[in-house]
Amino acid sequence: MPVRGGYFDGRSSARQTVTVHVAGEGLRVTHEDGRVELWPFHSYRVQRSPADRFVRIERAPYLGECLLVEEPESVPQLLDQLRQRAPSAGRAWRMAMGLAAGVAASGLALYLAFPLLVGLVTRLAPVSFEEKLGSAVSQSLSPESERVRSASISTAMQRIVNRLSPVSEGGYTYRVSVARDPMVNAWAAPGGYVNVYCGLLERLESGDELAAILAHEFQHVSQRHSTRNLVRTMLIRAGLSLTGTGGDALFDTAAMFGALHMMRSDESAADAGGLDLLRRARIDPRAMAAAFERIDKESNALPGALEYLSTHPSTQSRMEAARAAAARDGGRYEPVMTPAEWRGVREACYPRTGKGSGR
Questions:
Q1: Which of 50, 172, 223, 350 is a Cys-bridge partner for 358, taking CB atoms 3.0 to 4.6 Å apart?
Q2: Spatial CB neighbours of 163, under 8 Å, sequence gap ≥ 6
Q3: pLDDT tens-digit readout, 190-232
Q4: Residues 6+ apart with CB under 8 A from 61
């Protein structure tokens, strides 16, 4: 049943007489000139006076537009209608909780579906796409100006690639570069791009140990660990760009370098695949255990070694697995280079005064 009240537009002090009717979807306000407005239940707030002498209904955004009902017989009538037709506090709470549950369910669905989407994109990505992506990453993280240009380095890297590639899977062309940097690290980008830092070469003692590191990194490529992590980063940044909260620098250096950090499960898989790759290439798998053990022992005295261990955790179980893989083959291995050739590789990093002068 309609009740009479006053309407204030919030822009002047003029009072207009209106009729207020509580409808199914909100308040139906009829002005004297016949104009009808609907105030949905969620679009206003009700202020009651002491003893319910009057009711003031303010319309959002609460800038002064309101209805005022102050006739003694109309106030209880309006309040009773609001209690019966407007959402109760309990119903409003249930609606809010339902909305929150819906948002949470949507977030959970997205959380569960996102890894599937990343996996699908990674599996469907052609090698040509990985190579383009890897080239961009490699040029950004290891610019040409920072790479070691040396015949001994190039020959040594190509010799290892020639030993590992024929027994590798995935059809990748591996390109190994060496950066003149004291960081003790190495990383693999999609498409076969691998970078090794001089700081890591200084810690190794043979070409076989370097081959073991590269076999491990090659497995990140062939198992598409690097591609998956970069695809995940790209999708996240693309999503942020749609919301205007990020993503302007889709391929910025920090994001790419962070995406190349592998999960522990990736490292274990790369270990297992790398050991098998070494065995098939007739390179002693024990070199992998030796390389990890050497970096592990030096990590306390050489803080730089922690860079490698943070992403390539060296554990006793990994070393034992490498030794066990070597024992199964009976030791029929061929070194990838002579000790003299290996010394030439390490010295090429810092040609002026030899080992370590670049620090």
A1: 350
A2: 211, 281, 282, 283, 336
A3: 999 999 999 899 889 999 999 999 999 999 999 988 888 888 7
A4: none
Say yes or no to pLDDT of 120 above 90: no
Residue 39 amino acid letter = W
Say how far apart CA 55 and CA 188 lie, in whole Å.
71
Is residue 94 a contact partner of residue 38, using CB atoms and an 8 Å limit?
Answer: no
Rg (CA), the chain: 35
**pTM given for the model:** 0.62
68 and 184 assigned to the same domain: no
63, 86, 109: which is the final residue of a domain? 86
- Examine the domain organization and report whether 134 and 79 are in the same domain: no
Give the tokens for residue 216: 């491990």
What distance lies between CA 221 and its chain's CA centroid? 19
* CA pair distance 267, 269, nearest whole angstrom: 5
Among 32, 57, 86, where does a domain finish?
86
Phi, psi of 90 (to 5 degrees): -65, -40
Number of domains in the chain: 2
Q: Are 322 and 286 in contact (CB under 8 A)?
A: yes
Cα–Cα distance measured from residue 251 to residue 246, given in angstroms and rounded to the nearest whole number:
12
Q: Which two tokens stand for residue 290?
A: 């030796």
Domain that holds residue 179: 126-349
Nearest by Cα to 275 from 313, 322, 311 = 322
